[in-house]
Amino acid sequence: MPILDRPENMERITTPDLANKYIEEQIADIKEQVGDKKVLLALSGGVDSSVVAALLIKAIGSQLVCVHVNHGLLRKGEPEQVIKVFKEELGANLIYVDAVDRFLDKLAGVTDPEQKRHIIGNEFIEVFAEEARKLEGIEFLAQGTIWPDILESEAGIKAHHNAGGLPEDLAFELVEPVRILFKDEVRVVGTQLGLPDSMVWRQPFPGPGLGVRCPGAITRDRLEAVRESDAILREEFAKNGLEGKVWQYFTVVPDFKSTGITDGKRTFDWPCIIRAINTTDVVEVTVEHLAPEFIDHLVKRITSEVPGINRVLFDYTPKPPATVEYE
Ligand code: XMP
Question: pLDDT digits over 44-63, tens only?
Fold first, then answer.
């Protein structure tokens, strides 16, 4: 049976050899736990669920059914990357659910941040449960729980999102093959499983996605402005060797407009806020001071390439007093 608690004397997985050993042990454990039954996994494309998917594909192949829900709040290129890596390259049994309209229709006109998070979380469970009910013979649910999740839930810091809050008729047995690992170890294992660096070294991304970076009521045009400006920011950070060096960086497009001028004509458009931060524990966060020439370049690209943006602002606020995300 799988080990539920991290052994006190467990060596930190820092090398390919240690990762390979862990992978072999997990494959044996998964095979023993699951037998010839089917396993379901919500594959977001984040580090933890991606590593779990890659491990399970290696262990049980097509007995794993991955469900990727596109809630419309993902970053540019993310659903495509999940399909390319898992379906095309690893041959996963992957169900892609386009739930964009469903989520955005439910969120239309909702301004309260907590209500937005609530809708996104509930709708996600509903969509996933609907897919699960369509499938036959599923007995297990795989989850990307990692050791800090267990420690934090034991310490009462945050509720562990165990079993994703699925309804009772979907009470599957859990398969948690990275449960005893720290995040850095999950990354070493992911690399050893052949996942691309862009997946393994992804910066943290909140479950409600770009929804919390589109403050107030989400509209499709403003959401698109967040997505496009975020894509430019990520591209420029990668080009300038900042990927993996700055802990988290993203854009926010608030719900107000200001006057500007383009080609001699008045514009009345949104600003785009750039946030770039460093931290070790996200309890305290410092601001990354970007080079002025780099900021100038970002301003030029974002104002000229992203429809609806006529101004770029930089957020100089550490945490506390500000949180990392805006909602
Ligand atoms: P805050 O805004 O609380 O963010 O200072 C701290 C870190 O947590 C991420 N974050 C989330 N991650 N679900 C997540 O999985 C969420 O709802 C969520 N909200 C914030 C945030 O991106 C930052 O790295």
Answer: 999 999 999 999 999 999 99
Please tell me the total number of residues recorded for the chain in this structure.
327
Q: What is the DSSP letter of 13?
A: -
Task: State the closest ligand 1 atom to the C-alpha of 326, by its place in the atom list counted from 1.
Answer: 2
- CA neighbours closer than 13 Å in the CB half-sphere of residue 121: 13
What angle in degrees, to the nearest 10, is found between the helix axes of 292-305 and 220-239?
Answer: 140
Cα distances from 307 to residues 227, 233, 248, in angstroms, run: 11, 15, 24
Ligand 1 neighbours by CB, cut-off 6 Å? 204, 206-208, 248, 282, 319, 323-325
| Percent of residues, the chain, with pLDDT higher than 90 | 90
Q: Cα(246)–Cα(207) distance, rounded to whole angstroms?
A: 20
Q: In this prediction, what percent of the chain has a pLDDT beyond 70?
A: 98
d(CA 68, CA 86): 10
The residue whose two tokens read 């089917």 is 38
Measured CA to CA in angstroms, residue 213 lies from 92, 227, 268, 290 at distances of 31, 9, 20, 21
Nearest CA residue ID for atom 24, ligand 1: 204
Q: Which residue from 202, 205, 282 has its CB within 8 A of the most atoms of ligand 1, so it is best to mutate?
A: 282
**Does residue 76 register a pLDDT over 90?**
yes
The reported pTM is: 0.93
pLDDT digits (tens, 9 = 90+) for 139-153: 999 999 999 999 988
Strand, coil or helix: 298: helix
From the alpha carbon of 208, which atom of ligand 1 is closest? Answer: 17
Long-range own/partner contacts, residues 16-24 (CB < 8 A, 24 or more apart): 16/188, 16/191, 16/192, 18/188, 19/185, 19/188, 19/189, 19/191, 19/192, 20/192, 22/181, 22/185, 22/189, 23/55, 23/58, 23/189, 23/192, 23/193
Closest-CA residue, ligand 1 atom 16, reads 206
Measured CA to CA, the distance from residue 325 to residue 126 in angstroms comes to 25
Residue 71 Cα, ligand 1 centroid: separation in angstroms?
Answer: 18
